[in-house]
Amino acid sequence: MQRKNVSMNDIEKKIEDLAGIRIICQFVEDIDRVVNLIKNRTDMKVKCEKDYVSHMKTSGYRSYHMIILYTVNTIHGPKELSAEIQIRTMAMDFWASLEHKIYYKFEGNAPGYISRDLRECSDIVSMLDAKMLQLNEAIIQAKEAQEEQTGAV
After folding, report:
1. Which single residue of 75, 134, 143, 150 has CA 20 to 30 Å from 97?
2. Which of 29, 80, 84, 99 is catalytic?
3. Cβ neighbours, 10 Å, residue 88
4. What's the confidence (pLDDT) of residue 102?
């Protein structure tokens, strides 16, 4: 609130991530499925989206962010609140957690070599996500071929 110069009276209007949910997926392709499930819900509205999976930040950060509006019942009646939903893979979450911890220690001013190494690790995480997806698809195909050979359904 201090960083964004927001008073207590304006907190609900100006802070969109007062509440948050992080959804961790196994594979990158699952992120699109989750995004579509959220968009198709009738009990919430998507206010904005930021696709850091397709368009990663310069730091290497990857995740899909959505700000949603959700109606809650209060003692004063229904109230529309905003919340942030972050959707990422397990590998993206591992990287983001460590990146946050490192930058917190340096108060946002990490030495250049650390930033470069983090970016390199982000590239490795992206390759890992792609390889795990490829492996999963190969497993599915092998299982289908095996079932076809044995006549199992």
Report:
1. 134
2. 84
3. 25
4. 87
